[in-house]
Amino acid sequence: MQAQKFDVLIVGAGPAGAACAIKLANTGLAVALLDKATFPRDKTCGDALSVDVVNQLAMLSDKLATEFSALAAKVPSYGVKIFAPNHQHVDIPFFHKNQKSCGYICQRLDFDNLLFQHLKEYKNIQVIENCTVEQVLPQADGLLAKTNRGEFTANIIVGADGAHSVVAKHLGPIKVEKDHYSAGLRVYYEGVTSFHDDNYIELHFFKDILPGYLWVFPLPDNKANVGIGVLSEVVSEKKLNLKEVLQKLLQTTPNLQERFKDARPLETVKGYGLPLGSKPRNISGERFLLTGDAASLIDPFSGEGIGNAIRSGRVAAEHILNCFEHQNFSAEFNRAYDKEIYRRMWKELKVSHSLQKLCRYPWLFNFVVKKGNQSKYLKQFLIEALANVEIKRLLTKPGFYYRMLFK
């Protein structure tokens, strides 16, 4: 059977792959988007969509942004409730450009399917489901992808296939490093009570799992996304059984046990890995680019990855157009992609990594939350820090804590 020929192969139809394909729509390039699943499909995740994610949808397509606005299966969230290890909390509303704003909680089953169905509108994009890429091989004039549904060739391939990327495995140098990787669990519940009136997402930090946290995010129909994410090196060092840790915290923590007393899990606990963007990596090479989780672009502090996945897909599409314009797909030419990714993202990833390291100290966390509730100035500072990386950077400076202590 002869290989099917395309200009671009994108492996993975999640947010990164879908964003890349949408930005290549109507460009005249023949694009194949391959995914091992059949949509709609679940994706183990916290399901939180930041303000950044919502804003980027309009950058992809006005129609897509309108379709998202009309999507019923989402809950608007207007802030975050952060619980310190001593169980005290501070409420921080979301702002964007000094205006009250909102993110959403939307199951990936629904969000990813929205992106996936939108893709079908474009004639130059061929979407192939139930297509597992088994091997990627370089050729003299391109790449060959061997799948369970035949062979595909292209000038360039985009790895948008997540934490265990086949593209990265066969072509890229990225390896799992426990100090730059987190283990995550998720389980859907119904019957969880006492959410904030504005559906604030909740991040619960506990001494034994720092710098990780337990999350509780409200969903439609009286449901909730509940999970835990812990740095892999902490899991190894403390020999943690995360399923047991999650259940124990839900059952014994004062501000959680009453709310989960009559709650019912709707599934077995699902596990997944989070490759963190806490160090720069080589994310391209001869005829390939890595995006999203495959490129390890998850925020090291918050664990959020969808925004950077979409952004990396957009940047990849822009770079691919340059590749075809110059007819250059070399590793050297593709270094411009790495440079642009980190130009846009590294500042925030670096700050988040610094905050992740500070979160190892429970007393410091307790102190900041306490002061955040006592000081209007600090509360406003925390609100602005959520939306502004330059302000957030101050949280990593010793002088900031000195001023909090003595002023």
UniProtKB/TrEMBL annotation:
UniProt-listed InterPro entries: FAD-bd (IPR002938), FAD/NAD-bd_sf (IPR036188), Geranylgeranyl_Rdtase_fam (IPR011777), Geranylgeranyl_reductase (IPR050407)
Listed transmembrane segments: none
Pfam families xref list: FAD_binding_3 (PF01494)
Residues covered by the FAD-binding domain: 6-313
Name assigned to this protein: Geranylgeranyl hydrogenase BchP
Organismal lineage: Bacteria, Pseudomonadati, Bacteroidota, Cytophagia, Cytophagales
A GO molecular-function annotation: FAD binding
Organism of provenance: Adhaeribacter aerolatus
